[in-house]
Amino acid sequence: MTVERIETGIEGFDELIEGGFPRKSCILLSGMPGTGKTIFGLQYLCHGASNGEKGLYVTFEQNMDDLISNVGAFEWGIPALMDTGNLELLSMDIGEFKIDELVKKVKEEGHKRIVLDSLSTILSHPKILEEIDTSYMFVDKLDRLIPTITDINIATRFIVYNTVKKIKSLDCTTLITSELLMDSKSLSRDTISEFLADGVITLQYIMSGVDTGRNLMIRKMRSTKHSENIHPIEFRKGAGFSVLMP
Q1: What is the pLDDT of residues 123-156, one digit of tens each?
Q2: What is the DSSP string of 34-60?
Q3: What is the pLDDT of residues 160-211, one digit of tens each?
Q4: Where are the beta strands (DSSP E) in the chain?
């Protein structure tokens, strides 16, 4: 069966994944600070918006004016794309974020590309336990109620599962960013989302050796024969995020 592909607009990247992300997939973009997660995400949305696909960027940490200014050198024409209605940049207070409200917004407004930046911020907020519906209680074989979840690790798993599940239910192709800790063996800060996502891309800054510098690696991609190499990356004026051959 032919897999419908969504072009990312990232120079040198789509040829590594058979032409683009599988349509309606949820991709985890995990990286250390300064490795280009925001640039990758915005470039992906701008490419779609330029071709008539509505895109939504959700951030909890950045001011919109600063964000637009920081990527201005790449000349993507963000203000013009926003004026067409094909691109929306949304800065939210993490304390007010609810996944159900985001899902409702996406459905009502017809977005086809989403970037959620970032899952790490959502999980670091004290309200994480409040997000767990009190109806999620379990009954053992003796029909005795087991107390509602309170352990933070279990809560984290629940939030990640719930967030990814609801995003994957949408008619969208989504990027979710996450922090990647240096020297960590996991592919995300939460250590769970990499198993739930359809694809995982890691961005790292290697300090020594032949691969010194910023690098990209595709760890998995559903229904896709992808590159397994470490690829150097660069940020080019007038273009943006570019993937180079190793």
Answers
A1: 877 665 565 554 344 444 434 444 444 566 777 8
A2: TSSHHHHHHHHHHHHHHTT--EEEEES
A3: 999 999 999 999 999 999 998 777 778 888 889 999 999 999 999 887 777 6
A4: 5-6, 21-22, 26-31, 55-59, 87-91, 113-117, 138-139, 145-146, 173-179, 199-206, 213-221, 231-236, 240-243
Q: Residues near 24 by Cβ (< 8 Å), separated by ≥ 6?
A: 168, 170, 171, 172, 173
φ/ψ of residue 49, rounded to 5: -60, -35
Q: Judge contact between 58 and 116, C-beta under 8 A.
A: yes
CATH class of the domain at 24-125+166-240: alpha beta
Q: Where are the domains of the chain?
A: 24-125+166-240
Beta-bridge partner residues of 11? 242
Classify the phi-psi angles of 141: left when phi > 0, otherwise alpha if psi is within -120 to 50, otherwise beta: alpha
| Distance, CA of 2 to CA of 5 (rounded, Å) | 9
